[in-house]
Amino acid sequence: ANGEAYNNSFVKLTDAQAVIMQTQIECVMDLAYAYSVFSKGQYSRSLALANEIIPTSIYMEKNLYYLKTDCYYTLNNYQQAKQQLDSIISLDTASAYAHHYMAGTLVQLGQYDNAAYYYEKAIVLDTAVTIIYLLNYVDLLCTDYFKKYVQAEYYVNRALAMDTNNVSSCFFFAEVKYKLNDFKTAKKYYEKTLSLDSGHIGAKNNIAYILAFELKDPKSAIPYLLSALKQDSANYITHHILGNIYGNTSLKDPVKSEY
Question: What is the CB neighbour count within 10 angstroms for residue 80?
Answer without folding.
Answer: 17
